[in-house]
Design goal:
This protein has 153 residues and is of the alpha+beta class. It has one domain: Nucleoside Triphosphate Pyrophosphohydrolase (Alpha-Beta Complex). Helix content is 20%, strand content 39%. It has helices at 51-63, 131-137, 143-152; strands at residues 3-13, 16-24, 37-38, 41-44, 73-79, 85-92, 105-109, 117-121, 123-130. Strands 1, 2, 3, 4, 5, 6 and 9 form a 7-stranded mixed β-sheet that branches. Strands 7-8 form a two-stranded antiparallel sheet. The longest helix is centred in the middle third of the chain and has 13 residues, at 51-63. It is globular. InterPro entries: NUDIX_hydrolase-like_dom_sf, NUDIX_hydrolase_dom, Nudix_hydrolase_domain. This is NUDIX domain-containing protein.
């Protein structure tokens, strides 16, 4: 069973509660918007690091900036239809603008079956947006984290 951990940052504005989510990079996601965004997160080995440490590391790797100092609240763990388990932590990110990010990259064969490898950003943009506009954009397995966040505040 694969374990992942991520950080769901939130802030209050004149328009209400906003969350920071990231649009997944690479050619598969390039022309998609609905269910093509994610909480900054990634895999970890529970025998090597804690979920919280992994969430902070993945945030740094995906967005190229340190996450806020916290405090962090564990919102819960959800299981995707694939069986992957994702633990999500929340923190106030009011001081973090959604700009000047330096996105991590990954390599894959592209075009498919070409034998050539190309590098793509893990994330191609990150934005602050209201909870309701974020809901359909997030991958289905992460939407429950929005409800948990709203209930925790």
């Amino acid at each position: 069973m694969t374990s992942s951990a991520g950080l769901l940052l939130h802030r209050r504005t004149g328009d209400g509660l906003e969350v920071l989510i990231a649009h997944m990079g690479g050619p598969f996601w390039a022309r998609k918007d609905e269910a093509a965004w994610s909480i900054p997160k990634g895999e970890f080995d529970p025998a090597v690091e804690t979920a919280m440490d992994a969430a902070a590391r993945e945030f740094r790797e995906e967005l190229g900036v340190d996450p806020p100092a916290g405090p962090y609240v564990e919102l819960g763990m959800w299981t995707y239809s694939s069986g992957k388990k994702v633990t999500v932590f929340a923190a106030d990110g009011a001081g973090l603008p959604a700009c000047a990010f330096s996105y991590g990259t990954f390599e894959m064969e592209w075009p498919p079956h070409s034998g050539r490898r190309a590098a793509f950003p893990e994330v191609d943009r990150a934005e602050w947006m209201g909870v309701e506009p974020a809901r359909p954009r997030l991958v289905k397995g992460q939407r429950a984290a929005l409800d948990a966040l709203v209930n925790s505040l």
